[in-house]
Amino acid sequence: MEKPGSSQVFEFTVKKGQPILVPPAEETPTGIYFLCNLDQNIAVTMRTVYGFKSEGKGNENAVEIIKDSLSRVLVYCYPLAGRLTISPEKKLAVDCTAEGAVFVVAVADCELQDLGDITKPDNGILGKLVYEIPGAGNILEVPLIVAQVTKFKCGGFVLGMCMNHCMLDGISAMEFMNSWGETARNLPIKIPPFLDRTILKARNPPQIEFPHHEFNEIQDISNTYQLYKQEIIYKSFHFDPEKLETLRKKALEDGNIQKCTRFEALSAFVWKSRSQALNLNPDQQTKLLFAVDGRSRFDPPLPEGFFGNGIVLTYSICSARDLVENPLSFAVKLVSDAVKMVTDRYMRSAIDYFEVTRARPSLSGTLLITTWSKLSFHTIDFGWGEPVVSGPLGLPDKEVILFASHGKERNGGINVIVGLPASAMKTFEELLQI
To answer: Known EC number(s) (predicted)?
Structure first.
């Protein structure tokens, strides 16, 4: 990575200690913990980082405070101290063994500020600040929480987290991290976790009331897999509120749609631009997938502090020709219709669809947009104040684009983090000049 203000590549080393297990501080319930069908689809790891300045306090006691409070917060969120298993119904579930989270202490040979923005897409940093379980062959062998505290010369430190998405969506992860911080400061937990996921059980008998094309396998007739043999370039593009508003107005200018949100305009714009950059065959079907928070859309709404995945994937599908040749309003309407589709009946139909088919969303011919820009990870406080930098690290798949908040900016700016083959990235950059 480059050192800020320099064209030189900045190298730093991190010495990692031996991993230990941090179990819950008190006895917790045992047995099998139910994961609902919305949890089954996303058994991937989420990697996030939180960088804290020492602000006059050293980091000598940071490790003990963070480790001790992790042990205490796991009493409330005890399933995270267990291990994934396969239930008799052949689904993911948690064996509440109270084995605990994996915890690693590391020391860097530089100052925190030397790293610049550690959430920029730079895979060289990922392995240094987030601990990977060596030799883990599959998701069942990876503990549900892995935490690494890296201490820097300046007294600052970075908490690097690896959590399984089947346990937590972004909102649950944010609430867990904030609860952990409150525990570290000896405060009561503001939003206690609601642990009962059986409220999202499939109906008996299942009722599939809608087509669920989010699971469709799309044939790649554009040979994009050849393109992806090139070097993959990762870049972050900043859309400030003015740019987002310009996009929104552009979507409305031809009168084809009467209103749209900034998210809808940006998603449509990125989907269209990426399809152009990849030079898709005009007859190529292309699918946009993104998650909608279903917490308030269920009837009744999910309880506050719902601990799990309250998100549902929705989709748009069209040909590359229609997407690229039509004005932006065409794509925005597709995105807007996909958001409107997510009702209580639709979500319960999706839950039942998985119950019957065990299908998982296919990413062939697909762009998956994952949105972290509205999650307030910047409020986490272990006693050293809010993080100077926070957010997800890296992209899990080549089909994924990440919308993240822009540093500590609170005014609605969004960073669009993308990985594309080198030739496509050049075109994508040009298309994003608005």
So the answer is: 2.3.1.140
* 8 Å CB contact between 147 and 102: yes
Active-site annotation holds for 283: no
Rounded to whole angstroms, the Cα distance separating 39 from 141 reads 17
Give the C-alpha distances (Å, rounded to integers) separating 132 from 67, 102, 105, 190, 308.
18, 10, 13, 31, 23
Instruction: Say which of 122, 378, 381, 406 is annotated catalytic.
Output: 381
Q: Which residues contact 80 (CB under 8 A, 6 or more apart)?
A: 74, 101, 144, 145, 163, 167, 176
Residue 419: name the closest of 247, 277, 212, 272 by CA: 277
Position 237: which residue type?
F
User: What average pLDDT does the segment 323-330 reach?
Assistant: 97
Residue carrying structure tokens 């994937």: 313
Burial class (CB in 10 A: 0-12, 13-18, 19+), 104: middle
313 membership: H or E segment, kind and range: strand 311-319
pLDDT tens digits, one per residue of 398-434: 899 999 886 555 567 899 999 999 999 999 999 998 7
When pLDDT is averaged across residues 125-148 and rounded to a whole number, the result is 88
Global pTM reads 0.92
pLDDT 10s digits, 235-279: 999 999 999 999 999 999 999 999 999 999 999 999 999 999 999
Instruction: Tell me the C-alpha distance between 282 and 223, whole Å.
Output: 13
Quick check: is 196 catalytic?
Answer: no
Helices (H), 159-237: 170-184, 224-227
The residues with which 196 forms a beta bridge, in sequence order, are none
For residue 321, give the 3-state DSSP assignment: helix
| Catalytic pick among 165, 212, 378, 406 | 165
